[in-house]
Amino acid sequence: MGAKATITQSAPNRPPAMGEGDVDPSLLWDWFTKCENFLRHKGTEERDMLAAKGPVLAQMDWDTYKSQMRSLFLASDWVHTTRMEILRLRQPGSKPFINFAFEVMGKNNLLAGTDSFMNDDYMRETLEAVMEQDLSRECNCEGTHLITDFQAWLDEVKRLDERRRARLEKLTREIAKISVRSTTGPSTRVPFTCANQTPAPSVRTLMPMLKLTELERQLLLSNGGCFKCRKFWANHIGARCTAPPWTEPPTKPSRLLTCPPDPRPSVLEGAFPVPLWLLS
After folding, report:
1. What domain of life does the native source organism fall in (predicted)?
2. Rounded CA gap, 111 and 103, in Å?
3. CA 20 to 30 Å from 59, out of 33, 102, 131, 257?
């Protein structure tokens, strides 16, 4: 589909002109309206509107001319397409009902003179079906379906919609005030101090065991010790020991023992100093 045609008119008492482009029902309706307004300004009777257009046009009345224009410029299914566009409309939550209703009725005016044109009863049913859901529930609660006159029904729905929107605007303002107070009020954060600081869990650093000295090996060997876990009277040998080959570094200076912690005499004579971590 190409560019839409445009209608230009410098003043209401000057004839309108339609430029090149595609013509749709809305544009053609605008063309008819501008032509009628121009002819009224000129004081031309309706029966004489086409008298100066040549022998063919002179035989037409205004309604016939409009019908011929639609047949010439519009697609063959324009009536069905326009009606379906109306039925697919839905009231946006941000648009007041009365503005939306005028939009739907304006689109319905494009169907004037066709079998698909909606009278007041059909238009009311259409508006009830496509109005915003919260407004529809409020209309049901207020009993607007009992109103028989279309204009009276339209005015009542407009009143209910304006009342509903006023409530929503008030609620929005209250929420905004609460939000501002919560962001500008005194802070509830507890200042960071050493007193409220949760101590971080200590990280255990492991290190490989130091190599045994010859003196330490003799001491372990003489007292049933294990060369891997380095425990006295371990009752196992290093090949069967399940202890890991590392240990924690001492946090205090190692103390020296002068004898192993067992009442049985040592095979070695004398006492050998041994670090405390060997017995832990």
Report:
1. Eukaryota
2. 14
3. 33
Say whether 275 sits in a helix, a strand or coil: strand
Tens digit of each residue's pLDDT, the chain (280 residues) = 568 788 888 887 788 888 777 788 888 888 888 888 887 877 766 655 555 555 566 567 777 877 887 887 788 898 999 999 999 999 988 889 999 999 999 999 988 888 899 999 999 999 999 999 999 999 999 999 999 999 999 999 999 999 999 998 888 888 888 877 777 666 656 565 555 555 555 555 666 667 778 777 777 777 777 877 777 777 777 777 877 765 554 444 443 344 455 545 444 444 444 454 444 4
Secondary structure of 205-259 in HEC code, one letter for each residue: CCEECCCCCHHHHHHHHHCCCCCCCCCCCCCCCHHHCCCCCEECCCCCCCCEECC
Model pTM?
Answer: 0.48
Which residue's entry shows tokens 């079998």? 115
**Nearest 10 degrees: CA dihedral of 181, 182, 186, 187?**
-160
Domain ranges, ordered by start, for the chain: 7-166, 213-280
Give the angle subtended at the CA of 160 by the CAs of 156 and 166, to the nearest 5°: 145
Residue listed under structure tokens 């339609």: 18
Eight-state DSSP code of residue 75? -
